[in-house]
Every structure is written in C-alpha cells, then in structure tokens.
Design a protein that fits this description.
Helix content: 40-55%
Distance between the termini: 36 Å
Number of helices: 14
Shape: globular
Strand order of the largest sheet: 1-9-8-5-4-2-3
Number of domains: 2
CATH topology of the largest domain: Aspartate Aminotransferase, domain 2
Length: 405
Amino acid sequence: MKTDLAELAICGGPPAFSEIRHVGRPNIGDPDRFLGLARQVLDRRWLSNSGPCVENLEWRLREFFGAEHCECVSNATDGLIVAIRALGLAGEVIVPSFTFIATAHVVQWLGLTPVFCDIDPRTHCIDPAKAEMLITPRTSAIIAVHLWGRPCAVAALEELARRHGLKLIFDSAHAFGCSHENRMLGNFGDAEVFSFHATKVFNTGEGGAVVTNDHELAKRVRSMRNFGFSGMDTTEGPGINAKMPELSAAMGLNNLESFPEFVRTNHSNYACYDEGLSGVPGVKLLEYNHFERNNYHYIVLSIDETLSVLSRDYLQQILWAENILARRYFYPGCHRMAPYFKAGISGSSRLPVTEALSERVLALPNGTAVSPSDVREICAVVRLSIAHGDELAHRLQGRISAAHA
C-alpha cells in the first residue's frame, strides 16, 4: 500500500492498479451454470418472445419481491416508458434532479414535462415537502428514486400522491434486494421499475422489470412491451418492442442463484471501506440502515473540502491516475444538463441541496471484481491524498493554470 506522497501516480509513481478498477464492474455468477442455460436456449431455438427462461425468471422474481406481478423488459428505460404509458400520464411529472439522466429523459421523450424537485440532504432522495410545492393542475405523477438502494420517504410520498390524485412510480434501479420497513421494495406506489443493467448488483447483461401489485396495470404493461398485442393477431393499442431476450433471462437466472454471494461480497467490502476511511478528515461514507435488507452495492463518499482541503474533483483526478475510476454521481444534476438547462424546465431554476451534493459525492469501486486487498489499497490512496491535501491541491491547481496559459 502507498504510504509516501512520491508513490502517488499523480506525483510520478506507478499506478496502484495495472488493471482499471471500475465502479460497477459486472457480477457474473457461475459461468458454467450460465453456459448450461444458454445451451438450453440455443437447443430450443427460442431466443425471444417470452420463452421459458423469461417466464421462469419472472416467476422467480415475483417470489423474490413478494409482489403479484413482475414483467421483465429489455432495459429499465423501456420499463419506465412502458409504465408511464400504461398509467396514462400527461402534462407534468415531478422527478428528482439528483438521479441518472434516464429518469428525466423518459418523461421528456414521451412529450411530458419533467419538473425537477430538490432532495432531502439526509437521504439524497426526493423531498416530499418540496415535491408538494411543485404540484400544479397539470401534474399527473411523481417519479421518486430509491437512490443508492436506500428507500425514499415511501409513506409520505404515497400519502401525497393520494391527496392530490397523482400516480406514483418508484425508479428502483439501485434497489434490487432492498427493503423498507421489512417489506421488499417492489411493493410500493403504482409500480416500481428495476434495472438489470450490467453495472447493477443483479444483472441480466441488459434488462429490467416493471413490478406492481395492480393486475390491470400489469396486463397493460405486458401488452405494451410487445407491440400492444393481446392475442396472436389482435392488438389493444399501441406498444413497443421492450421484451427481454431469452439469453438475458438466462443470465438473470444464473445471477439470481448467486445474488446472496454478491451481497455478502458487497457488505464485506463496505465494512473494509468503513474501517479504512474511519477518521479521515472531511470524508464521510454513506451509511445504510442495517435493520433493513441492503445490497451495499454503492460505496459513496461525501467530501467536505473545508475539512479535507482537497476537493472532490481533485481527489477524483488522483484516484483516476491510480486506475481507480471513481465516479461523480450524479454530477451536475439533471436540471443543469441539456436539454433541460437551456429549456428552463419548470422547477429547475435553483435546487440548492442537489447542487451542493453533486459537488461533493464520489462513488468508489465495489462488487465481486473488487477484493478486500483492493479496498485497502484504495483507502490507503484516499488517506494519503487527504493527509497531503494542501500540497496536492497546489500541484493540481498549478497544472490547471499551466494548461490554460
């Protein structure tokens, strides 16, 4: 582990890792088990259109969530699109700005207006009180995000939606395997949409699911993900091709078996990070509620420059030089990105909590591709960098000034 300033790659030393350590490198499960399932798919010559693997995965996931319906889709973005159309939304939809851009894009893509809401500084999730202030006669729904797998203020949002006659969708892209009040996420609001993208704790390579306890909504989702078909030669309305392929479902069945192992690895790494970063000035590790189920997939630091001296962005540059690809989630906030910033989308003029948090947050590598020794090395780099924050900040500022000269 690096203990001297001269050893840092940004100061001329060799990188801590010869191979890049990513945030969210895919969990694979048992490769032989996947290849066996894939061989069955090929032998059946049934590659799409709700084959046996997709049906089996949906059944397994219904049991996992304890929900009535789970409709697998090609990806979570398509899942949100189909859910929005199936709920008949129109006008304005309130969304947090502190989220992946897809949450806002699907609203805009469908011709609706995203209205950006600020977040609760404690949870990083949408603030129900601030959401209520944004409701107008044109508001049809709220899309809330269970960020980092930590649940939103579910009860407050459900009550808010009920009082104002709004639909409520939870973007649960981060939240597979997490619970709220000992009930699995997937059972709240009108629907929850999960991502099974390669970087998520549970993945199907690419994919997602719409999970709901509303029978009629599930029926509409099932039809809309398959061009609007209700029978062999009958459509009941417009739809798109948002079906999950069989090989993706095969990966999902494989990874579902290994999911407990994924969580154990994440939890172990989280504990190593917690120990390794304890007492580092200005560096705070995101906390989880250990009385709930968590996937511990997101290792999120908040950097307070007034205490660390080193800014979040300078620390990121140092880590990247070590082949540690730390990420600035979710910088700079959707409301400050095109097309929303230039369009002056309603509610987006100033979101102080979102803007402050987007300048401080840094996500570190985790998952089964990261070992405890990797975590200790990453922590050593962070500790060393903060210990020499003044000198490193001066060096990096000097490089920026020289580059602009």
